[in-house]
Specification:
The chain has helices at residues 16-26, 32-50, 88-97, 144-155, 170-179, 207-212, and strands spanning 10-12, 56-62, 67-73, 79-84, 102-103, 105-110, 117-123, 132-136, 139-140, 160-168, 185-190, 193-194, 200-201. It has a single domain, classed as Rossmann fold. The mean pLDDT is 95. α2 crosses α3. The protein contains six helices and 13 strands. The protein starts with 9 loop residues before the first strand and ends with a helix. The protein is of the alpha/beta class and 215 residues long. The strands form three sheets. Strands 1, 4, 5, 6, 7, 8, 9, 10 and 11 form a nine-stranded mixed beta sheet that branches. A two-stranded antiparallel sheet has the order 2-3. Bound molecules: uracil. The site of uracil has 10 residues, from α6.
């Protein structure tokens, strides 16, 4: 894990296992089945870091040997919020490790005239403002969708938000840090740049198409 952007709130999880799996999904010959499986595996491996600062409470329990005090997660269950559609590809992997997490959904489309993301669907669990909300999208490209999704969550009173992606472009990281300086960004890889079509370079292509087998 390191801090390539010289910014405490940008975490690149360049753990060997994560980097290896990211390389597999970057390959153009990796098919839908494998791609989908590995996206979930990477998302699952990232949970350890995403949840590092969750609060614990002490409870009293009986082990087979004696009574003791032990820690358990405190407070409301956290919420995983995929940005539709590609974000859905990361949800199952996260749920493998946190089966009680709640799921919100954020649907955004890009207005063809203004080029700005517009909300078309949003559904969240109750008490959203009391929960940690993890917004997920495999690709942080321009940052437009991530910024709009986090705007939308903040409008509902949420204070504790993290953004998690698989591949980030420096342009997207900068834009998101500028718009939401309080939101940590956790990514499996940080790439070189965006190309003139808005793809991350070298990237992995269109994550949504590769997860869902569409073109
Ligand atoms: N969205 C993708 O799916 N891929 C990119 O490279 C950029 C945005």
């Amino acid at each position: 894990m390191h801090n390539v952007m010289n910014d405490d709130l940008v975490l690149v999880m360049d753990h060997p296992l994560i980097t290896h799996k990211l390389t597999q999904i970057r390959k153009q010959e990796t098919g839908t089945n494998e791609f989908r499986k590995i996206v979930n595996e990477i998302a699952g491996l990232m949970v350890y870091e995403i949840t590092r600062d969750l609060e614990l409470e002490e409870i009293e329990i009986d082990t087979p040997v004696e009574k003791t005090k032990a820690g358990q997660l405190a407070g409301e269950k956290l919420v995983v919020c995929p940005i539709l559609r590609a974000g859905l590809g990361m949800v199952d992997g996260i749920l493998q490790l946190m089966p009680s997490a709640r799921i919100g959904h954020i649907g955004l489309y890009r207005d063809e005239e203004t080029l700005q993301p517009v909300e078309y669907f949003a559904k969240f669990p109750s008490k959203l403002d009391e929960r940690l909300v993890i917004v997920v999208d495999p690709m942080l490209a321009t940052g437009g969708s991530a910024i709009a999704a986090i705007d939308l969550v903040k409008k509902r009173g949420v204070k504790n938000i993290k953004f998690v992606c698989l591949v980030a472009a420096p342009e997207g990281v900068r834009a998101l840090r500028k718009a939401h300086s309080d939101v940590p960004i956790i990514t499996a890889g940080l790439d070189e740049k965006l190309n003139d079509k808005g793809y991350i370079v070298p990237g992995l292509g269109d994550a949504g198409d590769r997860i869902f087998g569409t073109k």
